[in-house]
Amino acid sequence: MANFGVHPIKSQSDLMRFETEMSLEARLPEQSILDVFINSAARAPDATAMTMLMTGAPDETPRQVSYRDLLGQIRRAANLFAQIGGTAPGVAFMLPALVETHVTLWGAETVGYAVPINFLLQPESIVELLRAAEVKILVALGPHPQLDIWEKALAIQAQMPELQLVRLSPPGAAADNGIIDFATAIAAQPDDHLTFGAARSGDDLAAYFHTGGTTGVPKLVAHTHRSQLVAAFGGAAMCGYTPDDVLTATFPLFHVAGTIVAGLSGFMAGIELLVMTPAGLRNPAVVANFWQLVADHKVTLVAGVPTALGAVLQTPLGDNDISTVRAGMTGASLLPPAVANSFQDVTGCTLYEILGMTEASGLISIDPPFGKGTSGSVGWALPYTQVDVLKLNPDGTLGEVCDVEEIGVIAIRGNHISPGYRDPAHNDGVFAHGVLNSGDLGYKDANGCLYVAGRSKDLIIRSGHNIDPTMIENALSTHPDVALAAAVGLPDAYAGELPMCYVQLHPEASVSIAELMEHAQKTIDERPAWPKIIEVIDAIPLTSVGKIFKPSLRCDAAKLVVSKVLTDEFNLPNAQVGAATGGPRGLCVTVTLPPDAQASAQAVETALANYLFETDIEIAPAVPG
User: Fold this and answer.
1) CA 377, CA 208: separation in Å to the nearest integer?
2) 28: helix, coil or strand?
3) Strand, coil or helix: what is 89?
4) Model confidence over 185-211: pLDDT tens digits?
5) What domains, with CATH codes, occur in the chain?
6) Which of 47, 241, 284, 367 could crosslink 379 through cysteines, CB 3.0-4.6 Å?
7) How far apart are CA 288 and CA 396, in angstroms?
8) Is the pTM above the cut of 0.70?
């Protein structure tokens, strides 16, 4: 059983003591994911592993699952998948946050490997992922009034007739020829032993997670049992989880945050997960009743992405007693200071940041919630792992360790590092000689605390001057009328890029662009980082886990610039402008000129050649008559 020591980790010296007192092998005897559930059930079989809310209404009677029952259900699922798929099958699932989602995930890893799928993807993209992962079984939510998961599953099976569908439906749902009913099928399996031999373990493949971050197309990242166990152990140790903790589980299980730090780490330490409905913090009822739910279920740790926590912090606390809350935890994107300050004001507790990455089995570093908290920092590397900030060489390779406060690329070593992508061609520039190039920019302070300075791809480079977009976003997010801010590079013929910021206002807010610009200039010390343009939009685009999604904003900024050039310099306001991410320069702009503007095509191409994006000039066909 994992040994987390007697004293919680509060500082770097505590972390060093933790590592020197005992080896990782001694602290983490578990060899398989199933071992985690066997040990937790042995320690406290009747303790609550999960409390499942379905509606978010304060008066609902939740479903509670003990550690004994959870272990039994995982064994049943593993046995079912072995019966259907044979030896070490690939098991994909498209499910919202449910008890059965955990059962499917951990059961799949026990017998073969799991392939969690973001069910918001289009069927064509999902088919590509399933084929690449050589999946045999797909577990999907049955027909639902709000979700089209089952319709997608049927469309996928039509393209992959060899795929066995397993349907998770309410009790009493009508049978469907050729479709296996999840509840009925696992009920027929034994829950006290595995029918197929030993569980997968060690360096065996445990899962393929798809990731593209916020900038690229999905790629499959391999996790082993060892890599997930090391990451989960580090998360539990750094967060100081105890069996008395109740954690708000709001992350989807196709994302590593929901799987590791708000999943496996918690189960390893024997905590209770409060699953806040299948939709999590996307459920308006959960947001509206959040503080009452926290009070009623005696939550000790509030977790969520910054955007979601920002939303619940707009909900009045009222007379709800949330004195059991000891800390907040957030990750998946950088934390705006305004959200951190609001959390402190509302709860009286600190909101601690976590840095994770799919390629590091979900976790890289944590600002430990038992510590004093370091504003803006993501803390220290997990126990028995190493995080360095390295200089970026001109040829794109990683160089020497940076000085204190010097920005460089965050690089990670440790047994939690993925063995690589399913397609080895994607490993270039990411995995090399046991080092993971995160692609994140960061620096360390004199105490060794790590800070993230944005994605290297997000960096705005103005005439060779590097501008961290988070500086702009954080400044604008402090304005009381601003809900979200996203800064991107505005293409510029002279400077290469100029800073531009999109903002989403709170409902009912009314503020002028001039007021926002004045606020930005007062709160951003670095004059070159003052945004050239601030644009208010209805909603900042987000990924399915609440990260700001910048590719569409970069495209919008490029179209804005090109449209202005075509109008001001060539009197072509009717030209059509499109933009798409990708290509050798990362962005391609397509300009379709009217038929009578063919003579201007060369001049337009010459003018746009001064920008850093690719350009494709087309002439619209003439309309007959």
Assistant:
1) 29
2) coil
3) coil
4) 999 999 999 999 999 999 999 999 998
5) 12-450 (3.40.50.12780), 460-548 (3.30.300.30), 552-619 (3.30.300)
6) 367
7) 47
8) yes
